[in-house]
């Protein structure tokens, strides 16, 4: 079971232009997360700018993440694609590298039918014997994994063990949980819905805001698990303004900018991601200061 606060880790770059993978900073970020109670590392997702990593870089980030984590917490490698053959290739590499699980985003742009989604994910699960968590985010991919499709995959593919749900619909998430059964991990893919998702049987969150406030996100989930709902609610409401700031522009622009301001990594982004506008930079700085992350 994948539980707690798992971070959708940024990919740190160094140098000019597109930059190179900053190995030293990646190690430091992973140590920062382990020290601050993060319960899982998720490299090469949307926040990790996977769309602009070449194959060699993608594989290397996963290898380095596994190496630096050194078995202390799970590594769930982002290895999805809108090409089934490519997703299989990336997932095979992640298993070989020692990743504990794979995060598989829905195929984007080509917008498959529900049957196409089923066949895509089943082909990956059949090819690679590693726990797989599906990533449902129709706002980016253009297609929703319906609860019935999810349930069929959970029944037919024993290594499809959960979903990172970012549909924004608690009703859909509840239907998924009901259809897929108690052992199927429902993981929030939206920081603002972590507490409500826990309330309907979720196991945790794959978080963007945990890049800058890992302990607070971890404490929210921990408090809920211990039955201290009031403490979890307090953490939720404290985090909300910071979460809003993390999405003032397209992810990962704000969070990487925030990490640059905090000295956690260089705020280098790859095109077509571009620097935060001056107006939104001022708003982000205000949010970070009000939260206590910036002087």
Description of the structure:
This protein is α/β, with parallel strands linked by helices. It has one domain (4-226): TIM Barrel. The chain contains 12 helices and 10 strands. The strands form 2 sheets. An 8-stranded parallel sheet has the order 4-1-10-9-8-7-6-5. Helix 2 (55-69) runs parallel beside helix 3 (84-97). The radius of gyration is 18 Å and the shape is globular. The model has no long low-confidence stretch (mean pLDDT 97).
CA-atom Rg in angstroms = 18 Å
Query: H/E element string?
Result: EEEHEHEHEHEHHEHEHEHHHH
What name goes with the CATH superfamily?
A: Aldolase class I
Question: Helical region count?
Answer: 12
Overall CATH architecture: Alpha-Beta Barrel
Mean pLDDT across the residues is 97
CATH class group: Alpha Beta
Number of strands: 10
SS class: alpha/beta
Separation of termini? 38 Å
How many separate domains make up the residues? 1
Low-confidence stretches: none
Strand content: 5-15%
Strand order of the largest sheet: 4-1-10-9-8-7-6-5
Largest sheet: 8 strands, parallel
- Can you tell me the CATH topology? TIM Barrel
Question: How much helix, percentage-wise, in residues?
Answer: 40-55%
Bulk shape: globular
């Amino acid at each position: 079971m994948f539980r707690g606060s798992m971070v959708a880790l940024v990919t740190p770059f160094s140098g000019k232009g597109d930059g190179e993978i900053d190995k030293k900073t990646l190690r430091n970020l992973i140590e920062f997360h382990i020290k601050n109670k993060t319960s899982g590392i998720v490299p090469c997702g949307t926040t990790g700018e996977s769309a602009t990593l070449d194959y060699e870089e993608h594989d290397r980030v996963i290898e380095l993440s596994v190496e630096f984590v050194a078995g202390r917490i799970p590594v769930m490698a982002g290895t999805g694609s809108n090409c089934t053959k490519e997703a299989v290739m990336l997932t095979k590499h992640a298993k070989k590298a020692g990743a504990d699980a794979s995060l598989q985003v829905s195929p984007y742009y080509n917008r498959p039918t529900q049957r196409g989604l089923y066949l895509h994910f089943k082909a990956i699960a059949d090819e690679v014997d590693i726990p797989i968590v599906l990533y449902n985010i129709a706002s980016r991919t253009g297609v929703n994994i319906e609860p019935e499709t999810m349930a069929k995959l959970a029944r037919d593919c024993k290594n499809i063990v959960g979903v990172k749900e970012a549909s924004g619909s608690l009703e859909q998430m509840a239907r998924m949980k009901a259809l897929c059964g108690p052992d199927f991990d429902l993981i929030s893919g939206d920081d603002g819905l972590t507490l409500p998702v826990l309330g309907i049987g979720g196991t945790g969150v794959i978080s963007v805001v945990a890049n800058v406030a890992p302990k607070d996100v971890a404490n929210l989930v921990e408090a809920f698990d211990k039955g201290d709902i009031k403490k979890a609610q307090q953490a939720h409401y404290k985090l909300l303004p910071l979460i809003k700031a993390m999405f003032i522009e397209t992810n990962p622009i704000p969070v990487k900018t925030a990490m640059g301001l905090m000295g956690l990594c260089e705020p280098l982004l790859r095109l077509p991601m571009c620097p935060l506008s001056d107006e939104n930079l001022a708003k982000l700085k205000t949010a970070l200061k009000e939260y206590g992350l910036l002087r």
